[in-house]
């Protein structure tokens, strides 16, 4: 692959263009908003000049509802030898492509499982897809050349290809992406008119649950509208669980001992189901989840403190598997939670304490 056209220079399109350009691919940028394309070009994502002839691959990076229309225009112009898209829903665009009578031999659906809470070309990153799954949904007549072009795109962006049926993909993302987005927003919405004192008590737990609630509603409306039925099915199941959980909590308030025991059993059951579901989420490098232990260190909010801490951990010969920071609302200090293998906990805690770090139990 030597030449690529990216049609749509938002977060995903521009990130793909940056990754390709960094690998020496000539990338031609298009967008209905000419300013967005020029912004992407100024970031080093490619050129806004039209290609002299058909490029090797065109990446249609527009919302799901626009994929068919934009692909039709690209094919009419003979923009590329092969085409793919990066829309987060696959069944709707595939049906529209078929309804428009477009060439499906040289087209393959795609969806990189990566994103950010911010949108637009200025939020783009060349490493956005590194190590992330990139779903490909070929049609029955997608030819080998087109599949290979899409696989090369995925490899150049540092992602991992996953071939799926379009409908199976949509059910999967409804469960692991679209419904969680709405649930995060619903939890965060409880904070909108909450008492200031209550909000100041927010710790890492509520920050984790509501992190993606900062996402752009306009972008998500396009995604959810294209997968509304699948997401509604998931939320119906969640709503049933919520009703059962509310009933269990009400029972805990009851004066009757049998009702309280039933309520306790209901709460324990849903939390154990949560344990089992969480345990199925792939761990580091896609391996089965590993139970790490945490070393907590207090650091001041000054430049270089976190880097200094990481260097000390490296000197101790310990690998950091994950890290989180719990910020204090009242002081210029943070608690850094270093997740490490269980066998390294005492070694690391002792080494850091000996070097003057404030290690917390």
From TrEMBL:
Domain Prephenate/arogenate dehydrogenase: 2-281
Protein name from the UniProt record: Prephenate dehydrogenase
Catalytic activity: prephenate + NAD(+) = 3-(4-hydroxyphenyl)pyruvate + CO2 + NADH
NCBIfam families linked to this entry: PRK06545.2-1 (NF005109), PRK06545.2-3 (NF005111), PRK06545.2-4 (NF005112)
InterPro entries attached to this UniProt entry: 6-PGluconate_DH-like_C_sf, ACT-like_dom_sf, ACT_dom, NAD(P)-bd_dom_sf, PDH_C, PDH_N, Preph/Arog_dehydrog, Prephen_DH
Keyword Oxidoreductase tagged: yes
One GO molecular-function entry: prephenate dehydrogenase (NAD+) activity
Regions crossing the membrane: none
Alphabetical UniProt keywords: Amino-acid biosynthesis, Aromatic amino acid biosynthesis, NAD, Oxidoreductase, Tyrosine biosynthesis
Domain of life: Bacteria
